[in-house]
TrEMBL record:
This is FAD-binding dehydrogenase. The keyword Membrane does not apply. The lineage of its organism: Bacteria, Bacillati, Actinomycetota, Actinomycetes, Micrococcales. The keyword Chaperone does not apply. Residues 5-532 form the FAD-dependent oxidoreductase 2 FAD-binding domain.
Length: 550
């Protein structure tokens, strides 16, 4: 079967973790990736490095009371798994992952040198009833060093093994199909691509130099999702959720095209829940793009007013940071290609953050002095600079002036200045009471009970029309493609399953290509911090199980 025990297809986080586990077990691995060596680590390198962890010392120091039972209840309330058996494996992976996140995960990573920013963030707050979507408590642990630091221990294992001759890495090898023999996957085939000096994340040529084929007893597909193929994303988007717009931004590099999922399907694997995706409605165009249609997600605090394209507030609980997918479905259900955040200078400075390692140099560079700037008045440096350079940010001294700037940006007179003024005035009147009935005002006040939100994430209550907090700002938000929640169905060892539910011998799937576990560990909605975690868990699980079977 050749000189390799396993061929791993894809050098992103899940593929690197699976490779590391196989190498630790003494297996011979061939790692293939279509991109240049500069892109080792895939899209995880660009991430904020947030991890969903449960019952940690970081939480306890902040007075957060969490438990596996509460986390699993939140997960199931968000996932809304079907009862017809179609989510059998996704549900099983969810239970296993939550117990991992509450058990071995932190110690396993800590032993490999991973550390976390001590202020645990509260992502996806939900805002529904107790058994609905959302995190009941803060669980978003930001890795000290962001995405690159999550990758570090596994890249180090790979490079050490490569230096020792225990692993072969072939970049610019694009797998286009899996080889099957008598119903078993026995290798891969594809094209060797022309050399390309493209920097990390930038589009690289797909010009083929020659074909290749490799045989091995086992193949691991770790190629990610479909987020860069917008036509495929639109075709898979459920009709019940409206229509994704013709113009979308992209939160993943161009190579995230679903090719590995398609190759697995063609080889006989069962691909499930293709209509489940996790795209973001809070995207803004990157003024210094790396890949095509490059967008960045805003990570908002709860104070900004979220308006649709006509200037109406989104219905509760679709407030910033509460239900991303619900807000996206509201936008697509209306047939719009954008929505708006309206805020003032104080809220901009305190509450707007940008997702990604490149947008957070203080955390990525592990700079304590730079990090200390976050507690000072005004926006964090990169956010302020991004707002200055981005065409999606406009400002004015009055609601009428802001409405005019918003309309000028979109080229359509959809925002009425008088109505915008009334909307802001009504919100300000609620804040001025010190109590109020407006659900967003109430939720924002509640958020400040959590010490981290009060210190660095949520602005003190104030009137937006108070000149001391001006000027007013508006941010045009566009749809940002990102995560694929469905994928190759797998059992709890990561073995690919056929449509009849039986194992497809020789094939394994991990990471986003496997729906982060079982073909859909998140069900219909995710809790954030679970994407990197899903890559870690599926890569670790499959790598260990596969090593034991060889």
């Amino acid at each position: 079967m050749g000189s390799h025990d396993v061929v791993v297809v894809g050098a992103g986080l899940a593929g690197l973790v699976a490779t590391a586990e196989l190498l630790d077990a003494g297996r011979r691995v061939l790692l293939l990736d279509a991109e240049p060596a500069a892109s080792l680590g895939g899209q995880a390198w660009w991430s904020f490095g947030g991890l969903f962890l449960v019952g940690t010392p970081e939480q306890r120091r902040l007075g957060v009371r969490d438990s596996p039972e509460l986390a699993l209840a939140d997960w199931f309330g968000s996932a809304a798994f079907a009862d017809d058996g179609s989510d059998r494996w996704g549900r099983a992976w969810a239970e296993a992952f939550v117990h991992f996140a509450a058990g071995e995960m932190r110690a396993w990573l800590h032993a490999r040198g991973v550390r976390w920013f001590p202020l645990v963030q509260w992502a996806e707050r939900g805002g529904y009833l107790a058994d609905g979507h959302g995190n009941s408590v803060p669980r978003f642990h930001i890795t000290w060093g962001t995405g690159p630091a999550v990758l570090e221990p596994f890249v180090r294992t790979l490079l050490d093994a490569h230096a020792d001759g225990r692993v072969e890495v072939r970049t610019r090898h694009r797998v286009t199909g899996l080889v099957t023999t008598d119903g078993r996957v026995t290798g891969v085939r594809g094209d060797v691509l022309a050399p390309d000096p493209a920097p990390r994340g930038a589009p690289s040529t797909r010009r083929a130099v020659r074909p290749f084929e490799v045989a091995a007893p086992a193949v691991v597909v770790a190629t990610g999702g479909i987020g860069a193929d917008h036509e495929l994303v639109r075709a898979a988007w459920p009709a019940s959720a409206g229509r994704l717009p013709d113009r979308m931004l992209q939160g993943v590099p161009d190579h995230v095209d679903g090719s590995g999922i398609a190759a697995a399907r063609d080889a006989g694997a069962h691909v499930v829940h293709a209509d489940r995706m996790w795209h973001y409605p809070e995207g803004v165009a990157d003024p210094a793009p790396v890949w095509s249609r490059h967008g960045v997600r805003i990570l908002p605090g709860p104070s900004a007013l979220w308006l649709d394209a006509d200037g109406h507030r989104l219905p509760p609980p679709l407030f910033p940071g509460f239900d991303s997918l619900g807000a996206l479905r509201h936008v697509t259900g209306r047939g719009d290609d954008h929505s708006w955040f309206v805020l003032d200078r104080t809220v901009l400075g305190a509450e707007l953050a940008l997702s990604g390692s490149d947008q957070n140099p203080d955390l990525t560079g592990r700079s304590v002095p730079a990090l200390a700037q976050r507690v000072l008045p005004g926006a964090v440096g990169p956010v302020e600079e991004f707002a200055r350079r981005s065409p999606d940010f406009v400002s004015a001294g009055t609601p009428a002036g802001l409405a005019a700037a918003m309309n000028a940006l979109t080229g359509a007179d959809r925002i009425d200045g008088d109505r915008l003024a009334r909307t802001i005035e009504a919100r300000d009147a609620q804040v001025a009471t010190g109590l109020g009935k407006d659900l967003q005002v109430v939720a924002t006040a509640q958020a400040r009970r959590y010490v981290v939100d009060r210190l660095v994430r949520v602005a003190p209550p104030h009137r937006m029309l108070d000149p001391a907090h001006g000027p007013l700002h508006a941010v045009r938000l566009q749809v940002l493609t990102r995560k694929t929640l469905g994928g190759v169905a797998t059992d709890l060892e990561g073995r690919a399953l056929r449509p009849d539910g039986e194992v497809l011998p020789g094939l394994w799937a991990v990471g986003e290509a496997a729906g982060f576990g079982g073909g859909g560990v998140h069900g219909h909605r995710a809790l954030e911090g679970t994407f990197l975690g899903g890559c870690l868990f599926t890569g670790r699980t499959a790598g260990r199980a596969l090593a034991a079977t060889l």
